[in-house]
Amino acid sequence: MAFMIAQRAFLKLYLIKMVEERRRYGYQMLEDLKAEFKTHGYLPPQSEIYRALHELVQEGVLYRTKKLKGNDPSVDFQEIVLYHFTNDGKEKAELYRKQVKTDLDRCLGILHKAERDNFG
C-alpha cells in the first residue's frame, strides 16, 4: 500500500469530473487544473495529465475523438482531441471513484494524525 495517493490517481479523479462537466478538451483540462490548484502550490505536469487521459482510454472509461478547433475548416486547421465516456465508462468511472475515495480517506487520516500529533 502506498504512503499517499498517487498523483496520477488524483488527476484521473479530476479528469473524470471534467468530462462529466463537458470540459472534454485535453489542453483545457490542463489549464483548468493548473488554475484550480495554483493557490495550493500544485501545478500538474502536462505529461501526467496526458498519461492519465491515456490510461483512462486504455481502461475503457473514455474514448477520444478529433475535431477542428474552430468553426471554419478553410481557416482553422488545428485538430483538438476531445474525451467522452464509453458506453460503460460512467459505471467504470464510479467504481474508480470509490477506490480512490478509500485511498483519500486513508491519506486524510494519516495527515490529520500528523497534524494533531505535531501541531496540537
TrEMBL record:
GO terms for biological process: DNA replication termination. Pfam families: RTP. InterPro entries: RTP, WH-like_DNA-bd_sf, WH_DNA-bd_sf. It comes from the Bacteria. One of its GO terms (molecular function) is DNA binding. This is Replication termination protein. It comes from Paenibacillus zeisoli.
